[in-house]
Amino acid sequence: MTLLLAGCGGAPRVVTFHAEDNPAKLSDWGLFTRTAGRLAPHEGMVTYELNTPLFSDYAQKWRTIWMPKGVQAKYDPDKWFDFPVGTIITKTFYYSTPVGAAVPQASGEVLKVTPAAYQTGVTGLDLSHVRLMETRLLVKRASGWVALPYVWNADGSDATLERTGAEVPLTLVDGARRDAFSYTVPNQNQCAGCHVQDYRTRAVNPIGLKARHLDRVFPGEGGEINQLRRLVALGYLTGVPGQAPPANANWQDEKAGTVAQARAYLDINCSHCHNRVGAARTSGLWLDAQTVDQRILGLCKP
Question: Which of 38, 52, 53 lies closest to 5, judged by CA?
């Protein structure tokens, strides 16, 4: 059965960029189809992954980019890439559910899963044991980026724009251990708390779409390929040099060494505020990858 996200009930059958209005339903963007228990991206949407992802209460994430035909993002060695108007970035948060869950989307119990077991999402998500939580959009309009949080409904057929956020009670299962917690969907204003990375402009910008986070092998359908080169080959990125700047480590890769692991984790989780022009600039603790001064990194800091 193909549900609403595929274009039934008047929803678009192709990705639709909304230059001004903020649709109440995720399906109005035409981003996904849901057929035979799989949530899949529409044509032109590109899945990507980060070397080290932001931690979000053990939620798993599926990330995609869509751009109108004929335009490309411009590479930057340090900051977020310069994306054209019309770009839509999605991040879908979800949990794996216990095998015995009769209706995974309604399950109050979710599993703690290691990143190594996450689905790549290159062909979509297998929903047989998945509870979808939310899909956050970053939409590039003429006035700049707009963040929109959509919360999935009880049967997983669609998601609704929740400007004021939401709280969802869950139980995290880790073997015999069970921990009750409240999954928090941020309100629209809270999105700026992380995505405004420069106090001088106060502009919302992507966090993960930077060279050091994306420079990694991607396990796509056609085999493994460097992710930056893949974006170039797909026509989504231009200006990538022959030798990219050093990539961030995978924070769980012990071969990278403790320092590289810690720097990667702090960079993706903290440096959007803790940088020389971020919201936490006055702390004097800057945790971005470009900072090398040990004192500013917190070593022997009074």
Answer: 38
- What is the overall mean pLDDT for the chain? 92
In a domain, 77, yes or no: yes
Q: Are 171 and 109 spatial neighbours (Cβ–Cβ below 8 Å)? A: yes
Task: State residue 43 phi and psi, 5-degree precision.
Answer: -55, 135
60 CB contacts (<8 Å, ≥6 apart)?
93, 94, 95, 96, 113, 118, 119
Residue 12 has what pLDDT?
72
Residue 130 lies in a domain: yes
The whole-number average pLDDT for the span 255-276 is 96
The residue range of the domain holding 166 is 4-195
Q: In whole angstroms, give the CA distance from residue 54 to residue 209.
A: 12
The total number of structural domains in the chain stands at 1
Is the residue at 202 inside a domain? no
216 domain residue, yes or no: no
Confidence at 1, pLDDT banded by 50, 70, 90: very low
Entry pTM: 0.93
